[in-house]
Write a structure and sequence with these properties.
heterodimer; A: 271 residues; MetI-like fold; B: 265 residues; mainly alpha; 2 domains; 13 helices; ABC-type sulfate transporter activity (chain A)
Chain lengths: 271, 265
């Protein structure tokens, strides 16, 4: 048996199979989208992208993702700090709960928001009485994005906070600095790379989010239609070229972000 | 600060995670026990859950096998040049930054009924898009990086010393792998498996585009939830969602547990 397994052909076979699988599964589809979007020529591409509804959906996605990311930077930094620095009842449970949005199907996440804030719900009725519309409007989309991207920034900062050298902090206190000053002058600069790479990951995830958003957004073209839902609509209405054209705008942006994150992380590792 | 920040953190968790979870858990009982039982024993619900189960099993098996092998090649393989390795290494992450809808679209574009490859497979009676194979492909694409990203760092960390010692003592490739490498990377692989299961259980966008979401044919649990909500059948959606939530929470617990085990080794 071992003699057969040691034959050179086996390792060749394995190597080619794995590489082929990799290329067919990952690289080929991505090339496919890029070629498809230009399949009807440059003009058709420009036309698909400059369609006012397509354009509006992209701008809306960028805007809302940015808001969601900013919210997550604030609450993520706070949560990571509290979970790392303070010992209190329920800390370990909260720490495990952070990953919940990763484990939960995004469609279920959308359903949760719908049940909690939607029409006929307690909060939904209050908000409606105050004249605020949440579900099927922009706030619900932001909430969905915040929910889905919640773990990224926390998980990016936590390892840095754990490794943080306390002596610098203590030196600052000894020199008479206030707590706030120490945080912003001593601690924040150190965790900043983590915040940034977490924020970029969260941003690119928010750009791509579909499941949670599609259920709560209402998907009104030009108003609450985000890019991924727009792409879905184009596929459904049998316009693959238009879908591909908007897709590659989003894709290129995400790849750019991914590349930046890698750069930031590489620089940190090199230090 | 402490007195302010801890309650604030609790508030964030309550509003964002705990209250929604409780709401899902109780909302499913709105029509009583019968309503819940009806929601999850509908033929379409049973079919959708089975479809999801099948996809999870196939995807997890394939991804584990190929993910572990690819990680070993990318970390240990001397037959790949270092530049090529770097390139492949960065390609691994691409599915993370691709919107699931776009992931589904890619498969429709390449293998759809109107393409050459798709038409060829259709002519020999093997339907890919709008059928099970396409749904598996879409989920494979989305979950691909999870295993590789878990196993590669472990392989890098353990180094080659023990493996080299084993082969110096005359162990063959397979023996070295099973007796030396596998016990060291085992917890990383298990963690990767849990992540893959969680992601493929919950995959929605890519599957929705590829499957066409045909009831009792290509509908999965998540796309059924979507369809129920679209049909204003929120309580039924909630019943199916409750099952998904139960699995996700269980997976989260396993994740925590294997994370600890991983830390020990």
């Amino acid at each position: 048996m071992n003699d057969i397994l040691r034959h050179k052909g086996w390792s060749w076979g394995f190597r080619s199979t794995v590489m082929l699988y990799f290329i067919v599964l990952i690289a080929l589809p991505i090339i496919g989208v890029y070629t498809k979007s230009f399949s009807l020529g440059w003009n058709a591409f420009i036309e698909s992208v400059s369609d006012p509804l397509a354009w509006k959906s992209i701008v809306l996605t960028l805007k809302l993702s940015l808001i969601a990311t900013l919210i997550n930077i604030v609450i993520g930094t706070m949560v990571a700090w509290v979970l790392n620095r303070y010992r209190f009842i329920g800390r370990t449970i909260l720490n495990s709960l952070v990953d919940l949005p990763f484990a939960l199907p995004t469609a279920v996440g959308g359903l949760m928001i719908l049940l909690l804030l939607g029409p006929n719900s307690l909060v939904g009725n209050w908000a409606a009485a105050l004249g605020i519309e949440i579900v099927f409007h922009e706030p619900a989309i932001v909430i969905a994005m915040v929910f889905v991207t919640f773990p990224f920034i926390i998980r990016a900062i936590q390892p840095i906070l754990e490794e943080l050298d306390k002596s610098e902090e203590e030196a600052a206190y000894l020199l008479g600095a206030s707590k706030g000053l120490v945080f912003f002058k001593v601690i924040f600069p150190v965790i900043l790379p983590g915040v940034l790479s977490g924020a970029m990951l969260a941003f690119s995830r928010a750009l791509a989010e579909f499941g949670a958003v599609v259920l709560v957004a209402g998907n009104i073209p030009g108003k609450t239609l985000i890019a991924s839902v727009y792409i879905f609509g184009e596929v459904e209405s049998d316009n693959p070229q238009g879908a591909a054209a908007v897709s590659i705008l989003l894709l290129t942006l995400s790849f750019l972000i991914l590349w930046l994150v890698n750069r930031v992380q590489m620089r940190r590792n090199a230090k | 600060m402490r007195k302010l920040l801890i309650p604030l953190t609790y508030l964030v968790f309550l509003v964002l995670l705990i209250v929604p979870l409780i709401k899902i858990a109780f909302g499913a009982w709105e029509d009583g026990v019968d309503g819940l039982i009806h929601a999850i024993t509908r033929p379409e619900a049973v079919h959708a859950l089975m479809m999801t189960g099948l996809i999870v099993i196939v995807v997890t098996l394939l991804n584990t096998l190929f993910g572990v092998m690819l990680s070993i090649y990318l970390v240990r393989g001397t037959w790949l040049g270092s530049r090529l390795k770097q390139l492949l290494n960065s390609i691994v992450d691409l599915p993370f930054s691709v919107s699931p809808v776009i992931g589904g679209l890619m498969i429709v574009l390449i293998l759809g009924p109107s393409t050459t490859i798709g038409a060829f497979f259709e002519s020999i009676g093997f339907k890919i898009v709008y059928a099970f194979p396409g749904m598996v492909l879409a989920t494979l694409f989305v979950t691909f990086p999870l295993m590789v990203r878990e196993v590669m760092p472990v392989l890098q960390e353990i180094g080659t010393q023990q493996e080299e010692a084993a082969s110096t003592l005359g162990a063959y490739g397979w023996t070295t792998f099973w007796k030396v490498t596998w016990p060291l990377i085992r917890w990383g692989v298990i963690y990767g498996v849990v992540l893959t299961i969680a992601r493929s259980l919950g995959e929605f966008g890519a599957v929705l585009v590829v499957s066409g979401n045909v009831m009792n044919k290509t509908q999965t649990a998540t796309t059924l939830v979507y369809q129920d909500v679209e049909n204003f059948n929120v309580v039924s959606a909630n019943g199916v969602a409750l099952i998904l939530v139960a699995f996700s929470v269980a997976l989260l617990l396993v994740m925590e547990w294997s994370k600890k085990r991983k830390g020990v080794h």
